[in-house]
């Protein structure tokens, strides 16, 4: 599996630059997106990153596909919320706000140990199905046990009515954002270091070949169990942070959609890379929140993006960049850079055409008056006439066609001409 | 009590046969290809929508045959141009591919047919009361569903046991490598089985869409239950799927039909209806019925991962 | 294709485009904007879309009459995907964009989150925002969780049950055994609890069954119908909405059961079409208005409004009378204050406000910001002048509940700025 090389043998550059660039970005971004909504979005990205990193401890490192990881995120959030409310009720005396996420982490660990004890005996489909069932069970229970879960209205808390370790006023979104950044950094460092421990290596071994791992003397079930419990702990930490930024928690935080989103984000980013889930989670958070402002078809785009990644780039977005980077470094771009750029351009044109087709379809089928003038990519068109459809389909077909049937063979010819058997 | 039991069996069988129509295809696909098709319920939904749209032009009876064929064709395309490509990466990407596909199909259905339920109704020739039992009327359509399911089970059984194609599929279910070694075109068999499984789900949709609601949410609602059936019955086992469908159908109907809680049966014993155990104590079976399939799913996987009739573990 | 001078601006009243910027937006006067926070994608998109059309239509009518303070009203659509936490961040986005009013109605859980977000924002920031709730009926929002910045223009669940039970006392001779079936979440749980108390208190009838079922998960209601049959009930009371209601009524009908079903949302989007003539004379609803009220009471102006809406959007009907009340009361309050940005003053002007609605005088109760209005009990009828959603069936009034009988007591202890 290519994952091995990515996790272990990546170049130094890839290994260290994220630790400089990402924190730097985390400090610069709030200066650019300084509206309240912007800051909240950034906080949500930070939380999603922790959550996705914890998810990748299962999927990427241990080969466990979970459809119910939100259970630990959500339960962590609920427990943290109860503690926050206790602090609120005590008139703001008790656990400092900065440590509330630790409560979430503890709760995540607790439930991870309980549920993990029986779900990790087998990997693969059995594990996936157990997590699916558990996810559904916990989600349904959240509406039944309204004492703890607060029913479908959820629970509310007040982050301001809690003491701070450093005397910070958390009424401001920006301050909570920095709290999220701090915790995200701590979590990322821990998760990264965990990969470098014998446990992390054994997790990889268990993922790739459980029998062989067993022969070497490691019980795959125990390795999976520890990874699972630790992943649940970090998920709970993310849940605890969510309580602080949003001051509300309800059944959607333990729900299947939440579980699905973390899976999508992690996979889109790239499960073979440490920064893959970070990139994916950030992207998905932004898309989910802002794409829906621009187009009704955002769920479709989302699904298509995911399917394309699964089909054509199983190593995720980071994988695409990394593969190209390695090829470039190995001199694989020499003499064919132009063709690569040409293919990229043709592909982008094709995507542009496809987007036009989808937008036209949504307007045509969903609008109460399809013939109403419709702004598409800077043009005003009438979706009931043939012209915009022909043009859009044309662009899509030409773009993809050129990429696949002109650029791709050309690239292959050029590569085989320059180097015997060389491959990108 | 007798009334309740009789009623549960009757309605449970009706519900169970519908579950069977969907899950038989899924269990075949899994047994053969190792793919747990997340989008299976989406093909069920396509069956309902195709039948509704075709039915507007051709009437119900033609649609009953055409819609599953169309769904099967869609399934074949998905297998040939999607799954086969992903196959090389392993089972997890396959699962994820169908996971994403379920989203896309739901969106496309909502795009073409809208988010509101479509008025997909039983044909007039089946829309009358067939018989009454204990004060409740049963429409002819329900009887028809039962007939379709029986025909389907018998047909499937004959196909698998008595035909050459069935033998190949059976062989491929247990030893795919051997079937390949014997010179059969395994990828072709895969495409065929996938298309066939989807067509079965489509047939389920043709009748299920009438019995329940035809809206873009129907796949999401049915999806998890179908998994439960397949896991409980044993992955890859068609008789297992039948038995599991009936068990779940009857059990769920029974839980809904009785009025039972521990507190009601034993007495509240001073336990208040709050706190974890208090709520459990007072929990009525009707409220448990909804989570019952998931409970079965988890318990089966913990204690008997190969299910009731499965030959090998998942 | 011609080049669009306003490149990037989406034109028209396209559905589902959150943050849609309509062409009239940047005219000479800058508009008074209202954020409309509802699901515009996903399974509930049809409901969110219908509400948006109501608001856009009402805004246009106001604008044609000169708007508010001479300024246009603009509805800014925001897609919350029916998620409470998404709604919270949309409230923030509204405040960021300088919008002073948000409106929402679908889902009491979302409403609760918005109340919380609005309160929190107004406590911590100077840019304040007002929440106008047009459909979330959870009584808690005007009781223990009431807020100065929240106004409810729909009758809450307690009031609807009050009106319903008052009506039922007039039908005591035909109502003996009542069966309650509701969705298993706070809305349904409240109805189940409160209705039992009301039956004990007022009616000469007994509750023979009380069932909670999971929300939006039941595909086959026949097991529930068998329980209704076995209980011998003659009346069913349900707060179900959407598919849960249509499926229930269809199951009752196809089993040939002879019961009357009293609902909150029998006339709600999609339900008349799904139920059809099967609901005739057995499906009742309690609401603040329905289309044939205009005919019965000779409300010609309002009938014109209704017809015009139908011409604009042939596939749905004007259904939310509260939106009419809400928009007009907001206009009155802003014009009384003379400043659309002084949110606190507008809220104070709205408190206790009386408004001459087509159906009679409605009052915004100052104590908890709950509207009090006359209610109607109506039954599905194929002979109604206006059918709902082109279904062939409409509603006929069977009783008019005066304001005094459609009220509740409140435990609200409001914190005022």
TrEMBL record, chain A:
Pfam families: BPD_transp_2
Coiled coil: none
Membrane topology, as annotated: Multi-pass membrane protein
Subcellular location: Cell inner membrane
Predominant cellular place of this UniProt entry's protein: membrane
Membrane-spanning intervals of the chain: 16-33, 40-58, 70-87, 99-118, 124-145, 176-194, 225-249, 261-286, 298-321, 341-365, 385-405
Keywords, ordered alphabetically: Cell membrane, Membrane, Transmembrane, Transmembrane helix
PANTHER family tied to this protein: ABC TRANSPORTER ATP-BINDING PROTEIN (PTHR30482:SF17), HIGH-AFFINITY BRANCHED-CHAIN AMINO ACID TRANSPORT SYSTEM PERMEASE (PTHR30482)
Protein's UniProt name: Branched-chain amino acid ABC transporter permease
Species per Swiss-Prot/TrEMBL record: Marinobacter zhanjiangensis
UniProtKB/TrEMBL annotation, chain B:
Coiled-coil portions: none
Source taxon at top rank: Bacteria
InterPro entries xref list: ABC_transp_permease, BCAA_transport_permease
Subcellular location: Cell inner membrane
Membrane-topology annotation of the record: Multi-pass membrane protein
Keyword line: Amino-acid transport, Cell membrane, Membrane, Transmembrane, Transmembrane helix, Transport
Membrane spanning residue stretches: 12-36, 48-74, 95-120, 140-160, 188-212, 242-266, 286-303
Family: Belongs to the binding-protein-dependent transport system permease family. LivHM subfamily.
Protein name (database record): Branched-chain amino acid ABC transporter permease
Species per Swiss-Prot/TrEMBL record: Marinobacter zhanjiangensis
UniProtKB/TrEMBL annotation, chain C:
Organism whose genome encodes this protein: Marinobacter zhanjiangensis
InterPro entries named in the record: BCAA_transport (IPR051010), Leu-bd (IPR028081), Peripla_BP_I (IPR028082)
Protein family per UniProt: Belongs to the leucine-binding protein family.
Matching SUPFAM superfamilies: Periplasmic binding protein-like I (SSF53822)
Leucine-binding protein domain sequence ranges: 31-383
Top-level taxonomic group: Bacteria
Annotated Gene3D superfamilies: 3.40.50.2300
Keywords annotated in UniProt: Signal
Protein name stated in the entry: Branched-chain amino acid ABC transporter substrate-binding protein
């Amino acid at each position: 599996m290519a994952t091995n090389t990515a996790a272990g043998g990546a170049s130094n550059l890839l290994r260290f630059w994220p630790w400089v660039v990402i924190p730097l970005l985390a400090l610069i971004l709030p200066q650019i997106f300084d509206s309240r909504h912007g800051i909240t979005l950034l906080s949500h990205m930070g939380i999603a990153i922790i959550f996705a990193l914890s998810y990748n401890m299962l999927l990427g490192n241990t080969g466990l596909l979970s459809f119910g990881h939100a259970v630990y995120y959500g339960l962590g959030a609920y427990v943290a919320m109860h503690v926050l409310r206790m602090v609120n009720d005590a008139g703001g005396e008790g656990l400092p706000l900065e440590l509330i996420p630790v409560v979430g982490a503890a709760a995540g660990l607790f439930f991870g140990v309980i549920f993990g004890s029986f779900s990790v005996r087998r990997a693969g489909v059995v594990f996936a199905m157990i997590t699916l069932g558990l996810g559904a069970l916990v989600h349904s229970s959240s509406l039944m046990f309204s004492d703890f879960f607060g029913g479908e209205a959820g629970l509310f808390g007040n982050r301001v009515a809690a003491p701070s370790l450093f005397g910070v006023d958390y009424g401001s979104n920006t301050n909570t954002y920095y709290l999220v950044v701090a915790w995200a950094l701590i979590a990322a460092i821990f998760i990264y270091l965990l990969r470098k421990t014998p446990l992390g290596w054994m997790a990889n071994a268990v993922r790739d070949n459980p029998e062989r791992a067993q022969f070497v003397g490691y019980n795959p079930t125990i390795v999976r169990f520890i990874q699972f419990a630790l992943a649940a702990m970090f998920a709970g930490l993310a849940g605890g942070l969510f309580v602080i930024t949003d001051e509300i928690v309800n059944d959607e935080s333990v729900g299947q959609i939440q579980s699905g989103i973390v899976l999508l984000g992690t996979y889109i980013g790239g499960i073979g890379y440490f920064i893959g889930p970070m990139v994916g989670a950030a992207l998905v958070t932004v898309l989910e929140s802002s794409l829906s402002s621009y187009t009704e078809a955002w769920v479709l785009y989302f699904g298509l993006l995911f399917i394309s990644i699964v089909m054509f780039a199983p190593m995720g977005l980071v994988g695409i960049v990394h593969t190209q980077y390695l090829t470039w470094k190995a001199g694989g771009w020499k003499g064919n850079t132009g063709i690569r750029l040409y293919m990229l351009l043709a592909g982008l044109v094709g995507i542009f055409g496809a987007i036009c087709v989808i937008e036209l379809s949504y307007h045509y089928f969903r609008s109460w008056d399809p013939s109403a003038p419709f702004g598409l990519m800077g043009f005003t068109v009438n979706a009931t006439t043939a012209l915009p459809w022909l043009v859009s389909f044309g662009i899509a077909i030409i773009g993809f066609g050129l990429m696949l049937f002109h650029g791709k063979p050309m690239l292959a010819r050029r590569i085989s001409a320059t180097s015997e058997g060389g491959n990108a | 009590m007798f009334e309740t039991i009789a009623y549960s069996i009757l309605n449970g069988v009706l519900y169970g046969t519908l579950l069977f129509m969907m899950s038989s295809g899924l269990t075949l696909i899994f047994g053969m290809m190792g793919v747990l098709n997340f989008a299976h319920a989406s093909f069920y939904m396509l069956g309902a929508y195709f039948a509704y749209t075709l039915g507007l032009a051709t009437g119900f009876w033609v649609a009953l045959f055409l819609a599953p064929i169309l769904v099967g064709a869609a399934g074949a395309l998905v297998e040939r141009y999607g799954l086969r490509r992903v196959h090389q990466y392993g089972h997890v990407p396959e699962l994820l591919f169908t996971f994403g596909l379920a989203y896309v199909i739901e969106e496309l259905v909502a795009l073409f047919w809208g988010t509101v339920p479509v008025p997909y109704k039983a044909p007039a020739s089946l829309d009358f009361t067939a018989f009454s039992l204990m004060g409740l009327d049963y429409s002819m359509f329900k009887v028809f569903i039962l007939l379709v399911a029986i025909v389907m089970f018998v047909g499937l059984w004959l196909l698998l046991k008595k035909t050459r194609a069935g033998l190949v599929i059976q062989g491929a279910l247990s030893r795919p490598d051997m079937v390949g070694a014997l010179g059969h075109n395994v990828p072709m068999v895969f495409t065929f089985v996938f298309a066939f499984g989807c067509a079965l789900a489509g047939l389920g949709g043709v009748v299920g869409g009438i019995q329940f609601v035809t809206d873009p949410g129907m796949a999401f609602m049915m999806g998890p239950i179908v998994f439960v059936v397949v896991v409980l019955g044993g992955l890859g086992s068609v008789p297992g799927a039948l038995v599991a469908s009936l068990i779940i159908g009857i059990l769920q109907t029974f839980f809904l039909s009785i009025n039972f809680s521990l507190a009601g049966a034993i007495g509240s014993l001073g336990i208040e209806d709050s706190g974890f155990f208090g709520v459990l104590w007072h929990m009525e079976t009707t409220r448990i019925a909804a989570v019952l399939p998931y409970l079965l799913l988890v318990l089966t996987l913990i204690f008997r991962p190969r299910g009731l009739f499965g030959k090998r573990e998942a | 294709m011609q080049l669009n001078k306003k490149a990037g601006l989406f034109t028209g009243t396209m559905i589902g485009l959150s943050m849609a910027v309509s062409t009239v937006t940047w005219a000479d006067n800058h508009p008074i904007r209202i954020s409309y926070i509802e699901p515009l994608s996903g399974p509930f998109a049809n409901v969110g879309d219908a509400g948006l059309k109501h608001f856009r239509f009402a805004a246009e009518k106001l604008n044609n009459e000169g708007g508010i303070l001479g300024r246009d009203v603009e509805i800014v659509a925001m897609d919350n995907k029916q998620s409470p936490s998404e709604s919270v961040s949309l409230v923030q986005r509204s405040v960021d964009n300088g919008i002073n009013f948000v409106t929402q109605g679908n889902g009491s859980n979302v409403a609760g989150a918005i109340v919380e977000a609005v309160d929190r924002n107004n406590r911590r920031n100077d840019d304040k925002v007002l929440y106008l709730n047009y459909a979330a009926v959870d009584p808690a929002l005007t009781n223990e969780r009431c807020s100065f910045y929240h106004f409810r223009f729909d009758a809450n669940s307690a009031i609807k049950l009050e009106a319903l039970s008052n009506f039922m006392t007039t039908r005591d001779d035909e109502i003996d055994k009542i069966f309650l079936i509701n969705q298993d979440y706070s809305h349904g749980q409240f109805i189940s609890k409160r209705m039992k108390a009301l039956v004990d208190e007022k009616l000469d009838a007994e509750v023979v069954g009380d069932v909670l079922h999971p929300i939006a998960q039941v595909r086959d209601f026949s097991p529930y119908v068998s329980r209704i049959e076995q209980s011998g009930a003659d009346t069913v009371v349900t707060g179900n909405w959407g598919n849960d209601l249509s499926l229930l009524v269809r199951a009752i009908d196809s089993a040939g059961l002879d019961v009357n079903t009293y609902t909150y949302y029998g006339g709600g989007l999609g339900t008349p079409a799904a139920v059809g003539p099967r609901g005739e004379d057995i499906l009742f609803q309690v609401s603040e208005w329905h289309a044939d009220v205009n005919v019965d009471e000779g409300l010609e102006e309002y009938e014109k409004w209704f017809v015009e809406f139908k011409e604009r959007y042939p596939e749905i009907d004007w259904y939310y009378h509260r939106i009419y009340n809400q928009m007009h009361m907001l206009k009155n309050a802003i014009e009384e204050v003379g400043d659309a940005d002084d949110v606190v003053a507008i809220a104070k002007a709205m408190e206790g406000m009386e408004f001459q609605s087509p159906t009679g005088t409605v009052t915004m109760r100052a104590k908890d910001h709950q509207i009090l209005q006359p209610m109607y009990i109506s039954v599905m009828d194929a002979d109604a002048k206006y059918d709902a959603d082109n279904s062939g069936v409409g509603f006929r009034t069977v009783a008019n509940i005066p304001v005094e009988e459609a009220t509740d007591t409140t435990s609200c202890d409001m914190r005022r700025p």
